[in-house]
Design brief:
Blueprint: E1 8-15, E2 18-25, E3 42-45, E4 50-54, H1 59-77, H2 89-109, H3 111-117
Parallel strand pairs: 2-4
Antiparallel strand pairs: 1-2, 3-4
This protein binds zinc ion.
Length: 120
């Protein structure tokens, strides 16, 4: 059973066969402090397929934050761990391929997400 979701639904998009939600929460929401280091501008809950964005940032910061969190979702799904690529160009390039495929999938299948990210 899915955990409770917080905040206001901004948009939904499919990724790797899952329906993801992007939700907006207050600046001090506990969901923004997943690592206990204080609330950030956004966070990605991989198992819940939810990305939370802080209401306390500008629209452009929210777009950047969403792109950052989606990147994390793609990396997690593709088993990309950049720390294993230190000084290994072939490994780093393979990781770039893996992440590129994720973005290509989003570009092909998520017009609402692309519109949101482009601010239109
Ligand atoms: Zn991050």
């Amino acid at each position: 059973m899915a955990r409770r979701k917080y905040g206001k639904l901004l948009l939904k998009f499919p990724l790797y066969g899952f329906d993801w939600e992007v939700r907006s929460v207050g600046v001090n929401s506990k969901v923004l402090d997943a690592d206990g280091k204080g609330p950030g501008s956004g966070v990605c809950y991989m198992n819940d397929h939810v990305i939370y964005l802080s209401e306390g940032v500008t629209e452009e910061q929210a777009r950047t934050t969403l792109a950052h969190e989606i990147q994390h979702a793609i990396e997690d799904h593709s088993d990309v761990d950049y720390t294993t690529a230190a000084d290994d160009e072939a490994t780093a390039d393979r990781m770039t391929d893996q992440v590129s495929r994720g973005w290509l999938m989003l570009i092909r299948t998520c017009p609402e997400l692309l519109a949101w990210l482009s601010g239109k």
